[in-house]
Amino acid sequence: MGLAKTEMFTDEQNEISLFAKVFGHPARVAILQHLFELDSCICGDLVNEIGLAQPTISQHLKELKQLGLIKGNVEGTSVCYCIDKDNWSSMKNIMIKFLDQDIPNTDCC
Amino acid sequence: MGLAKTEMFTDEQNEISLFAKVFGHPARVAILQHLFELDSCICGDLVNEIGLAQPTISQHLKELKQLGLIKGNVEGTSVCYCIDKDNWSSMKNIMIKFLDQDIPNTDCC
DNA sequence: TTGTTTCATTGCAATATTACGATATATAAA
DNA sequence: TTTATATATCGTAATATTGCAATGAAACAA
Fold first, then answer.
1. Between the CA of B109 and the C1' of C9, what is the distance in angstroms?
2. All residues at 6 or more sequence positions from A97 whose CB lies less than 8 Å from its CB, including other chains
């Protein structure tokens, strides 16, 4: 099938999985790390620093933008991409809440 | 293609994306939340509580187990699954380090 | 032994993802 | 206007993922 049955899960479960899915490719992780380190902000620089073709990077940027985690700013013929602080922060809260749960003490495993 | 070019990314970037990918499906998020809440630990209970077929749940459990995030314990004819505390903890450190980076102050966006 | 229960594995169809060449679009420069 | 540069979009091939019916394997009960 290749199609997740989202209707049988909670909104929270679907939201966590959507955020996680966008981090589920090393190119998108690399793009975000570059934006965090600010050694590139312009789309073309990302294409040069990461070794993928320009349409591929553009496609990954689009997915990050669709989730609201980055935003783009046109500057002449080039586009500057940056982390969207507010949206990143609320995503972070949701993900950390999931990751940082207390692990129950069981005797079965 | 459908194939990530992992050789062009750092080990850290690949590791983050592998962990994220396993959280990229709501069924696996749901399984983990059940294990955190301890209202089910036995594979068959998970099948009942989540609405997917038994082979599907079994496959998702396998992926979580392959990454070391859960471990299973055979009890008679049933199997008890639990979070692997140590591995979860080290995964958590890696993911939170990625999520909790300082966002640079730029004037471009 | 035979049957039952529980879970894993296999095989396959449907869909999603990834990557990139070709091309379109938009801005700036000449 | 023409040309160059930068990015987005389209189309498509290759591969991955999801879900489940059918089946297998293992432990227990009768």
1. 51
2. none
DSSP B104: P
Distances (CA, A) of A83 to A69, A88, B105: 6, 7, 10
Q: pLDDT 10s per residue in chain B (109 long)?
A: 777 777 899 999 999 999 999 999 999 999 999 999 976 689 999 999 999 999 999 999 999 999 999 999 999 999 999 999 999 999 999 999 999 999 988 767 7
For chain B, the domain total comes to 1
Kindly determine whether residue A52 and residue B24, on different chains, have CB atoms separated by under 8 Å.
no
Give the CATH number of the domain where residue B18 resides. Answer: 1.10.10.10
Residues 6+ apart with CB under 8 A from B106: A38, A41, A80, A82
- A6 assigned to some structural domain: no
Query: Distance between CA B47 and CA B53 in Å, rounded?
Result: 7
State whether B106 and A72 contact (CB < 8 Å): no
